[in-house]
Structure formats: structure tokens, C-alpha cells
């Protein structure tokens, strides 16, 4: 942990998570930090002004968004180096997660300023925690490209990824994105959509991609609200570990050179997902030829 050394008069940069819908999710520690810092850097000062009003905090606000981040970082760093504590918040959830703040945090660290997270809501973590998909390995990809061709290319590149995939998506693209997942990754790929999480109309849609697309199309509110899209990772056959992607004959030749045929066929079967008997026969042919 990075703690301040005695004599270090620089301020601390707090990265404060705020609610993704339900205001009761703002933690007591977040409220305390927001009440105590000298300045709050916010993605949209009008939007965050409402949250701060709700908790009775009145502080100078600095706008820090994607379009001005580089320019604003210097003046925020000057405040930190001058001893002021600063909090960074975004419109919703955890700053830097598909939100501004990366340049500020990077540069603050480079200047030796203490950066401390005040953890809390994050749509991707909330969605994954309730989706029922494997979470031991997941790949968060932020937003997919807005244009169909770019989106399909991105999905095609992820087709064989075995980790659970997580995307953010806007309501006006959600139907197109689910349709593209069904087409590029297959209609039977399991997906889960987390919609309006922590809000009144929180809904989880889950099932095979084609089923979820149908449910979403039929739901009159299907394309409203905010969405997290989660896709089950590829299984062995989808990941191309079956015959074809792996040179099975080369694998068998290598194994047979070191091991008895039966053992070689068993290991090759584990690696490729192909049947043991089929591999045993093929190993025999290779040995005889
Ligand atoms: N920093 C935020 C976080 O920690 O989750 C994410 C900011 S990103 C600009 C906004 C996207 O997050 C939305 O388009 C949506 O995909 C997702 N999102 C945010 N709030 C959500 C909610 N309540 N339910 C579902 N998705 C949400």
C-alpha cells in the first residue's frame, strides 16, 4: 500500500465510485471523502451536482471528460502537489471503467501523488455477480464498435475466446449487437443481458443468443435502459481445439514416439476433444506407414 511519508505535503487523489442507478449504493466512506476533499473532478458537473446535492455536499467542481482530460490534468496535478485532496467521480459507477480518468491517475502516480480508490458500484462486476456465467476468467471489452462491420469483426476475433466476455452496450444498439452475436458466435451460444441494474426495472435476460434476441424483440421495453452484455466463453470445440486447428497427425507422431499407443491416444483425446478409439486407429496407421 502506498501511504504518505512524514513531511509529504502533497494531497491525495481519491477515485470514488458512485451509484449506477440506486443512490443508496453510495458508500458511507464515499460520502465522507466527498465531504472532506477540497475539490471534486467530475465527468459532468451538472449530473454530479445532483448527486452531491442529494448528500448535502457543496464543493468546487472541475469538469474532467474525454475531450478535455489532457488539458485539465495539469491544473488538477498542481492542486494535488500544492497539498489539496481531490476526488475523481464519473457519471456512474467506477471512474476509469469505460470512463475518463486514466491520464490523471497515470500522471498523478508518475508525480508520486498518493492515489487511493474508494470502491463501490461497477456495472460489469454487478452484472457478472448475478449472471450465472463462469467468473473465474472474464474479458471485459468495454463498448463494441458502433458500426456493424467493425462490431462483427471484433466479435469474430473473440469467437474462440474461452473466458466469459463482457461488453457495455447502449439501448439503441442492443438489438443489433445481440443479433450480431447470434450470427457471428452462433445462435446457441449462451448469453446474459443485465439491464437497468439496481434500478426499478432491473431485468436479466438469459439463454441461447437466438432465444434472448427473440425475448428482447418481443419485450416492448427491450431496447430501453442501460445494458451489460455477457457471453459464455467458447467451449473446446468452438475454440478450435478439435481436429483442424491442431495438427492431429503431428501431435500423434510426437506422442507415439515417447509413449505406448493407448496412452498416446488418451492424451491426444484430452487435448483435441476427439474420440480415443478414432485417435488410436489413426496412431496405428501412422505407425505402420
Ligand atoms: N464506470 C461505469 C461502471 O463502473 O460500470 C460504466 C460507465 S459506461 C460510460 C456506461 C455503460 O455502463 C452503460 O452504457 C451500460 O452499458 C453500463 N451501465 C451503467 N449502469 C448500468 C446499469 N445500471 N445497468 C446496466 N448497465 C449499466
TrEMBL record:
<dbReference type="InterPro" id="IPR053910">
    <property type="entry name" value="RsmI_HTH"/>
</dbReference>
<keyword id="KW-0489">Methyltransferase</keyword>
<protein>
    <recommendedName>
        <fullName>Ribosomal RNA small subunit methyltransferase I</fullName>
        <ecNumber>2.1.1.198</ecNumber>
    </recommendedName>
</protein>
<dbReference type="InterPro" id="IPR035996">
    <property type="entry name" value="4pyrrol_Methylase_sf"/>
</dbReference>
<comment type="function">
    <text>Catalyzes the 2'-O-methylation of the ribose of cytidine 1402 (C1402) in 16S rRNA.</text>
</comment>
<feature type="domain" description="RsmI HTH">
    <location>
        <begin position="244"/>
        <end position="287"/>
    </location>
</feature>
<dbReference type="GO" id="GO:0070677">
    <property type="term" value="F:rRNA (cytosine-2'-O-)-methyltransferase activity"/>
</dbReference>
<dbReference type="Pfam" id="PF00590">
    <property type="entry name" value="TP_methylase"/>
</dbReference>
<keyword id="KW-0808">Transferase</keyword>
<dbReference type="Pfam" id="PF23016">
    <property type="entry name" value="RsmI_C"/>
</dbReference>
<feature type="domain" description="Tetrapyrrole methylase">
    <location>
        <begin position="12"/>
        <end position="211"/>
    </location>
</feature>
<dbReference type="GO" id="GO:0005737">
    <property type="term" value="C:cytoplasm"/>
</dbReference>
<dbReference type="InterPro" id="IPR008189">
    <property type="entry name" value="rRNA_ssu_MeTfrase_I"/>
</dbReference>
<dbReference type="InterPro" id="IPR000878">
    <property type="entry name" value="4pyrrol_Mease"/>
</dbReference>
<keyword id="KW-0698">rRNA processing</keyword>
<dbReference type="InterPro" id="IPR014776">
    <property type="entry name" value="4pyrrole_Mease_sub2"/>
</dbReference>
<dbReference type="InterPro" id="IPR014777">
    <property type="entry name" value="4pyrrole_Mease_sub1"/>
</dbReference>
<keyword id="KW-0949">S-adenosyl-L-methionine</keyword>
<dbReference type="InterPro" id="IPR018063">
    <property type="entry name" value="SAM_MeTrfase_RsmI_CS"/>
</dbReference>
<comment type="similarity">
    <text>Belongs to the methyltransferase superfamily. RsmI family.</text>
</comment>
<keyword id="KW-0963">Cytoplasm</keyword>
Amino acid at each position: 500500500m502506498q501511504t504518505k511519508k512524514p513531511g509529504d505535503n502533497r494531497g491525495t487523489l481519491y477515485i470514488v465510485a458512485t451509484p449506477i442507478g440506486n443512490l443508496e449504493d453510495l458508500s458511507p466512506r464515499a460520502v465522507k471523502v466527498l465531504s472532506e476533499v477540497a475539490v471534486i473532478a467530475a465527468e459532468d458537473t451538472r449530473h454530479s451536482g445532483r448527486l452531491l446535492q442529494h448528500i448535502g455536499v457543496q464543493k468546487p467542481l472541475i469538469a474532467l471528460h474525454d475531450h478535455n482530460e489532457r488539458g485539465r490534468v495539469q491544473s488538477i496535478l498542481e492542486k494535488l502537489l500544492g497539498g489539496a485532496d481531490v476526488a475523481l467521480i464519473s457519471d456512474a459507477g467506477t471512474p476509469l471503467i469505460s470512463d475518463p480518468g486514466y491520464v490523471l491517475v497515470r500522471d498523478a502516480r508518475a508525480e508520486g501523488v498518493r492515489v487511493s480508490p474508494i470502491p463501490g458500484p461497477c456495472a460489469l462486476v454487478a452484472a457478472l455477480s448475478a449472471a450465472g456465467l463462469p467468473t473465474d476468467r472474464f474479458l471485459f471489452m468495454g463498448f463494441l464498435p458502433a458500426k456493424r462491420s467493425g462490431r462483427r469483426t471484433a466479435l469474430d476475433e473473440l469467437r474462440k475466446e474461452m473466458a466469459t466476455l463482457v461488453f457495455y452496450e447502449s439501448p439503441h444498439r442492443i438489438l443489433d449487437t445481440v443479433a450480431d452475436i447470434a450470427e457471428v458466435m452462433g445462435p446457441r451460444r449462451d448469453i446474459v443481458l443485465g439491464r437497468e441494474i439496481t434500478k426499478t426495472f432491473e431485468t436479466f435476460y438469459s439463454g441461447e443468443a437466438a432465444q434472448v434476441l427473440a425475448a428482447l424483440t418481443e419485450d416492448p421495453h427491450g431496447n430501453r435502459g442501460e445494458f451489460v452484455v455477457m457471453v459464455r466463453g467458447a467451449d473446446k470445440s468452438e475454440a478450435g481445439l478439435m481436429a483442424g486447428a491442431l495438427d492431429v497427425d503431428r501431435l500423434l507422431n510426437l506422442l507415439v514416439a515417447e509413449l505406448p499407443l493407448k496412452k498416446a491416444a488418451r492424451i491426444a483425446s484430452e487435448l483435441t476433444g476427439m474420440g480415443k478409439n478414432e485417435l488410436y486407429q489413426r496412431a496405428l496407421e501412422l505407425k505402420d506407414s
